[in-house]
């Protein structure tokens, strides 16, 4: 709560600034610890010079570094697209409803085949992501660890803690989406637009502004259809919507 205003009631830009501030503070902690001993500040400056991506918060990156480092980070999270889709395919065998099982397999096959699924193809399986087998508290630990790595959250925690962190992350993202819908994506600057897409899993630096806006509208259509209990689908939509966008010939996971 800020000045009596709850996080979910903040305007989009204030909410995004607070979200980024929290992450910047977490990233700055190791640097603060290293600088505590006498004369260690000299070592800190050397480390910051040679390892700006790992040690500096994005505010201190140059424009060129921002593009370069986002590309590096995106390449790291892309590695988890296939394991997540494979995990969904394996889990589909636990779905008792034959129609939903078939729809989930078709959705996975479409993503693996290099296509971006339609919104209706994603939302038709939403019930599987609120309870067993893919609800936030029902997923296997291995599957949750891949999603954690996709989001740059540490996967080296007990299963119940991973589940709690993922749920917190997803609810924060859902609230951010609701605030963005109230503002309207078309009100964002080019930088804000690309950053919003990047946070939601898209490598926006390689796309035009209109493509980013089109993709963000699609994302918000999915997000606005979800209840708090269905946020597991929101996290999986990072892969569904971004893995192959824009779809191209010969593109596949």
Structure, explained:
- The chain has 253 residues and is mainly alpha-helical.
- The protein has twelve helices and no strands.
- It is globular and about 65 Å long.
Largest sheet report: none
- SSE string: HHHHHHHHHHHH
- Total helices: the number is 12
Q: What is the SS-derived class?
A: mainly alpha
Net shape? globular
- Give the averaged pLDDT, no decimals: 92
The stretches of 5 or more residues where confidence is low (pLDDT under 50) are: none
The percent of residues in helical segments reads 55-70%
| Number of DSSP-assigned strands | 0
Q: Radius of gyration, rounded?
A: 19 Å
How would you summarize what this structure contains?
With 253 residues, the protein is an all-alpha fold. It has helices spanning 12-34, 40-50, 52-55, 63-78, 81-92, 98-112, 119-123, 141-150, 159-183, 190-199, 209-224, 231-242.
